[in-house]
Specification:
Elements (H helix, E strand, L loop, with lengths): L8 H9 L25 H16 L7 E3 L5 E3 L2 E9 L6 E10 L5 E5 L2 H4 L19 H5 L11 E4 L3 E6 L5 E6 L4 E6 L2 E6 L6 E2 L37 E4 L2 E4 L7 E7 L4 E4 L23 E3 L21 E6 L2 E7 L5 E9 L13 E9 L4 E6 L4 H12 L12 E3 L7 H13 L6 E4 L20 H9 L4 E5 L3 E3 L5 H8 L14 E3 L2 E5 L5 H10 L12 E5 L19 E2 L3 E2 H21 L11 E3 L11 E3 L7 H16 L5 E2 L1 E2 L8 H11 L5 E3 L17 H14 L1 H14 L4 E2 L1 H4 L13 E3 L4 E3 L9 E6 L4 E4 L5 E3 L2 E6 L7 E4 L2 E5 L15 E6 L6 E8 L11 E9 L2 E6 L7 H7 L4 E8 L10 E4 L2 E8 L8 E10 L4 E4 L2
Parallel strand pairs: 22-23, 22-35, 23-24, 24-28, 28-31, 31-32, 32-33, 34-35, 45-49
Antiparallel strand pairs: 1-3, 2-3, 3-4, 4-5, 5-21, 6-7, 7-8, 8-9, 9-10, 10-14, 11-14, 12-13, 14-20, 15-17, 16-19, 17-18, 18-21, 19-20, 25-27, 26-27, 29-30, 36-37, 37-38, 38-43, 39-42, 40-41, 40-43, 44-45, 46-47, 47-48, 48-53, 49-52, 50-51, 50-53, 51-52
The protein binds 2-acetamido-2-deoxy-beta-D-glucopyranose.
2-acetamido-2-deoxy-beta-D-glucopyranose binds next to helix 9 and helix 10.
Length: 968
């Protein structure tokens, strides 16, 4: 959450002192472009782009200054280790760049390039800096949790020109490392899929001392001119040693140190991922031209006010992981660098007559990555399916957290619920209007003057009473806690932060002070293990007075947002634990704070082991392990509603699928039909929260009035009844990284027409195909069907079939939602106030028959709360309908807690089975066989375009047991 146009009076006075802020506090309706750098305003971005331009201009005559020393290359235990020499002048001087190419057991490869001089600390820092001299090499420590085992089975062969490594499953992968110029081709089944330095844009800015050049003298005569061959080409040093932006100067103690590399995907037309950006899922070209961007995609976590919906501008989170896709092939790269990063994308019509790439794959996507500092450290995933790539990436960075069940239900938030009575009143009204919700949220105003871990005594004097009322319906409270700690006398938390020296430092090693919500603040440095320990201690129930076990946490502003800092964040020369410059770690910063809070919620009380829920705004690769993200401060506009799905899809592609956007739009007051449509869309966000700015009118669903309140309630009920399906999808994501809402190319990697579709998607493996309305006054939508299967309208069983676009009615009260034939969808149909109250409710199974009259589905259930599922306390069933029989089969793995859990679930059964698309022959049936017994069945004839359906009532089978129901 960001600035109010009428900031609370407590800091308006202080604000006046900060002239830099004046432009930010004025109400406006567009992003403040001038607050964030364009590529041209970023030194290393301009330098790397200029380098690329030079290479392109030189064409064939471009001399790549990087080559591997052939003799240096050793193969040891799955790694090629050697040295790249960079020629730095015409005199033959070189710089040594150690390179390690690791081949992992998982089939992924990793290329790491460092710089020897910096590695050994043989450099001088300017300005008496106390910063570290090495290139930042700890990104792995935060991002990677596994999957680094080196392969034992790769085969290497070398000659004077190249080294070739065969690796991966059945040695189908191959890396060809060319020495001069340096480059690597990654192949699968003998076809090149990924090329490093193919265009010669690799750039490692080596360390050099600053040489103060004498001012150029007027040349005195012809004879004084130096012979031309002595002159080295002039380099543009203007941004090497310092640069300024928006009144802030960044003195760079280490000089220029960016790393860049071009990565080409031959034959690949689409690239996805690299969140967070607002724009289409299929990433655009970035070097100008019709409909393209002019700037590269930027990754530099920032608090961007009123961001626009189609832009490569940076936003709050950064995951430098990209997937490239062509017909029946997906590959990926993960650029593991935590510094400011930009990515240029260019697509070229290729003339690969030599390559047999197949029809429709004639476009190459050329990408160019560069970061301000750190290593070249890139992982390459060779697929071949999107699921393979996501799985391999997740083996390294972890899979999405399996959240508590309440966390995937509906969250009611606004800035702010103003008193504990207000919260209790909203809670009562939701009940009065029979609107389900699980969580109510508190933004910053609940605190005593923005001091976290306190409650405003005047407005939230009885937090425990409020928490107790919520708990009576199994509801939760989420309160915001940010990383800025108010610099205020008599605030014990800041006293401890200072005395224990756990805050981020400025370049001189003193505690850094900046401005945020509380005014003058310090920032806890969660790169410091001691700071994490301390942070954990603050959440103990006896320390965070007025908290209870149904209180969870929201981490905002963790980019970090610093109101008076450059680009609204910290100076790049601030120092973190270990004296790493903020520059080196910026994009990881938010994740370390999110992690500290996650760890804290694990340990609030001895023996209390429940899954934490922490929402974060800032994130990096790996944040998916820790909770949910949302897309920040969007606007109450149709365009923002439409922008959300592509963003959420790209986040899922990049391994962080627990994502959502503020329902209703954060800024501004949505029209009622926009609000209604937004709830219908939100019911399909993995993270589903309504939220609003402090200046907006109240918009709790019951305030909308009819028909809106009723329609919104229907959308919420739909989410609640499908919670078993959503939870099953979350489980799947938590074990293999498959996105929770899935773009078409994930399910149909061969269907070229649908690769770029980002306004409709599948929910998990359920076969539910949704296209919520995101445009004004729509009466229908066109849903693209990827195959010739039967598709049924979820609500009235209207049947659609035939590949291509179908018109599906979508009046305001209707969400365009189809069931693909061949699936079995688990539901719970009894309306309740919260998901917690549904725990023991019976299930409904919906069977959507395909043309072959078969269907399959899965259900995953656990206690939705603890970690007992890790000891086998869960139910995982496969349902299959074929040849007139429905079978429930156990697909779980037993553990020591299984039996006890199954016993507790014995009384949870199935109350109803709905079969859609049943043959006419079923018309005479009135019962089905359930084991040795029977259950009643009703047949409902089809009607024109609507499929016939049947319903089995009370089959009396338990959800956790094997059974067969015979319809024959
Ligand atoms: C999270 O915190 C734990 C516990 O202190 C620490 O070991 C781990 O390195 C941290 N991870 C991240 C991503 O911050």
């Amino acid at each position: 959450m960001r600035f109010s146009s009428s900031p609370s009076s407590s800091w308006t006075a202080s604000l006046a002192l900060l002239s830099a802020l004046s432009s930010l506090s004025t109400p406006a309706n567009a992003v403040k472009y001038e607050n964030f750098k364009t590529c041209a305003q970023s030194g290393f971005c301009s330098r790397n782009r200029a380098y690329a331009d030079k290479a392109v201009a030189a064409g064939q005559s471009w001399e790549v200054p990087y080559q591997i020393v052939p003799d240096s290359l050793d193969w040891k235990d799955g790694q090629l280790i050697g040295t790249i020499l960079k020629s730095i002048n015409t005199k033959g001087d070189t710089v040594r760049l150690p390179i390690t190419i690791s081949f992992l057991e998982s089939g992924s490869a990793r290329v790491t390039i460092d710089e020897e001089k910096r590695q050994k600390g043989e450099i001088d820092l300017r300005h008496n800096s106390i910063a570290r001299k090495e290139r930042y090499n700890e990104a792995e420590k935060w991002a990677i949790v596994g999957g680094l085992e080196l392969t034992k089975s790769a085969e290497v062969s070398k000659d004077g020109k190249r080294a070739t490594v065969k690796y991966g499953p059945e040695a189908k992968f191959e890396a060809v490392v060319t020495y001069a110029p340096f480059g690597i081709d990654f192949k699968r089944d003998d076809v090149t899929q990924v090329k490093f330095n193919d265009r010669g844009l690799m750039n490692v800015e080596h360390w050099r001392p600053k040489v103060d050049k004498p001012k150029k003298e007027e040349s005195e005569g012809e004879g004084d001119q130096k012979p031309i061959q002595d002159a080295e080409p002039e380099e543009d040093e203007s941004t090497w040693w310092e640069e300024s932006f928006g009144g802030h100067t960044d003195p760079k103690a280490r000089g220029p140190e960016s790393v860049g590399l071009d990565i080409t995907f031959p034959g690949y037309e689409h690239v996805f991922g690299i969140p967070e950006h607002a724009g289409p899922m299929s990433l655009k070209q970035t070097r100008g031209g019709d409909g393209n961007y002019n700037d590269p995609y930027r990754l530099y976590n920032a608090d961007v006010f009123e961001y626009i919906v189609d832009s490569p501008m940076t936003l709050y989170g950064a995951i430098p992981f990209m997937q490239a896709h062509r017909k029946d092939s997906t590959v990926g790269v993960f650029w593991m660098n935590a510094a400011e990063t930009w990515i240029d994308i260019v697509k070229t019509k290729a003339s690969h007559s030599a390559l047999s790439l197949g029809i429709g794959s004639k476009t190459d996507t050329q990408t160019h990555w560069f970061s301000e500092s750190g290593l070249v450290d890139v992982f390459v995933f060779l697929g071949p399916t999107p699921k393979d790539v996501t799985k391999a990436y997740g083996e390294l960075t972890g899979y999405t957290q399996l959240p508590q069940e309440f966390a995937i239900a509906y969250h009611q938030c606004r800035w702010n619920y103003v008193t504990d009575e207000d919260v209790k009143d909203v809670d009562r009204k939701m009940d009065k209007y029979s609107i389900p919700y699980d969580v109510i949220w508190l933004d910053i105003e609940y605190t005593d003057e923005k001091k976290y871990f306190t409650w405003d005594p005047n407005t939230f004097g009885n937090s425990l009473g409020m928490l107790k009322q919520l708990d009576s319906a199994e509801r939760k409270l989420v309160a915001i806690i940010d990383p800025h700690i108010k610099n205020d006398d008599g605030y014990p938390i800041v006293d401890e932060l200072k005395s224990k020296d756990l805050a981020v430092h400025n370049k001189d090693g003193q505690i850094y002070e900046g401005w945020c919500w509380p005014g003058s603040s310090h920032w806890v440095d969660c790169f410091n293990p001691e700071a994490i320990k301390w942070w954990i201690s603050l959440f103990k129930y006896d320390k965070f007075k007025g908290s209870a076990d149904n209180l969870f946490i929201w981490n905002d502003m963790n980019e970090p947002s610093v109101f008076n800092g450059p680009e609204t964040t910290m100076p790049k020369d601030n120092l973190h634990h270990g004296n790493w410059e903020h520059r080196d770690v910026h994009n990881i910063n938010g994740m370390t704070f999110h992690n500290a809070t996650y760890q804290a919620l694990l340990e609030r009380k001895k023996g209390e082991l429940r899954r934490p829920f922490v929402l974060t705004r800032s994130y990096y690769a790996g944040s998916q392990r820790l909770g949910a993200m949302w897309t920040g401060d969007n606007e109450a506009k149709w365009e923002a509603l439409a922008a959300a799905f592509p963003m959420i899809l790209n986040n899922g592609i990049a391994g962080f699928p627990f994502a959502g956007a503020d329902v209703g739009g954060f800024f501004g007051n949505p029209e009622k039909d926009l609000l209604t449509r937004w709830y219908q869309a939100g019911a399909f966000y993995p993270f589903f929260r309504g939220h609003a700015h402090i200046d907006t009118r109240r918009r709790e669903p019951y305030l909308a009035g009819e028909p809106y309140t009723g329609i919104i309630t229907q959308a919420l009920r739909l989410r609640y009844s499908l919670l078993p399906a959503w939870y099953t999808a979350f489980h799947e994501a938590s074990v293999d990284g498959t996105p929770i809402i899935r773009p078409h190319y994930f399910e149909y990697p061969g269907d070229e027409a649908a690769f770029a579709i980002d306004d409709q998607f599948f929910v998990g493996s359920t076969g539910l195909l949704a296209k919520p309305v995101v445009t004004e006054k729509a009466e229908s939508v066109e849903i693209y069907l990827p195959d010739n299967e039967l598709y049924y309208d979820y609500f009235d069983y209207t049947t659609y079939t035939g590949q291509g676009k179908k018109t599906v009615p979508a009046p305001l009260e209707k969400i365009p939602l189809l069931m693909q034939g061949g699936h079995i969808i688990p539901r719970k149909d009894r309306p309740r106030r919260s998901s917690g109250l549904m725990k023991w409710d019976p299930y409904t199974l919906v069977i959507a028959l395909n043309k072959a009259e078969t269907a399959k589905g899965e259900l995953y259930v656990d206690d939705g709360e603890t970690f007992d599922y890790q000891n086998g306390a869960y139910i995982h069933r496969a349902f299959e309908f074929a040849a007139g029989e429905l079978v429930s089969k156990d697909i779980s793995t037993k553990g020591k807690a299984t039996d006890k859990y199954l016993k507790s679930m014995k009384r949870v059964g199935i109350e109803k089975i709905v079969i859609v698309g049943v043959p006419k022959a079923w018309a005479d049936k009135t019962s089905v066989k359930v084991g040795s017994g029977e259950a009643m069945m009703e047949y409902h004839a089809g009607d024109g375009s609507k499929a016939a359906w049947a319903v089995v009532k009370g089959p009396k089978v338990a959800i956790g047991e094997d059974w067969t129901i015979s319809f024959a």
